[in-house]
Prior knowledge:
Layout: H1 3-9, E1 17-18, H2 24-34, E2 38-41, E3 50-53, H3 54-63, E4 83-84, H4 89-99, E5 103-108, E6 111-117, H5 118-141
Parallel strand pairs: 1-2, 4-5
Antiparallel strand pairs: 2-3, 5-6
Amino acid sequence: MRISDVLRQKPTQDIISVQPQASVRDLVALLAEHNVGALVVSADGSSLDGIVSERDVVRQLGRDPGVLDRDVASIMTRDVHTCEGDHPVDELMELMTRQRVRHVPVLSNGALVGIISIGDVVKSRIGELEFERDQLDSYVHGS
């Protein structure tokens, strides 16, 4: 299975982003509104300037309770791990495990086309395993 297959299985392919100059308070509202754990940071809505997660917010809150009034650029990860849609999901799982990341932006020819979460990968893998189980069950029972 390819990363692009996982993207297609998502209920929506919308890429929700936040501008680097937005406040962390606005970021938290967007995360809650869209029920997601991370957002792409993009000045123009299509480029990839960084990524920011709930975890980034929580870690900063522990150090500085005033972080909610700072801008997103001050807490975002700038060195973002990305993947390409035509790569195998196994490579993405290895990247997520090795780098300890839960959200990975997907690029196609350098353009942002989506974001994959560890939950998306797990859901996809469970679907594959259920299909294989059903096929084996059908074979064994001759139906």
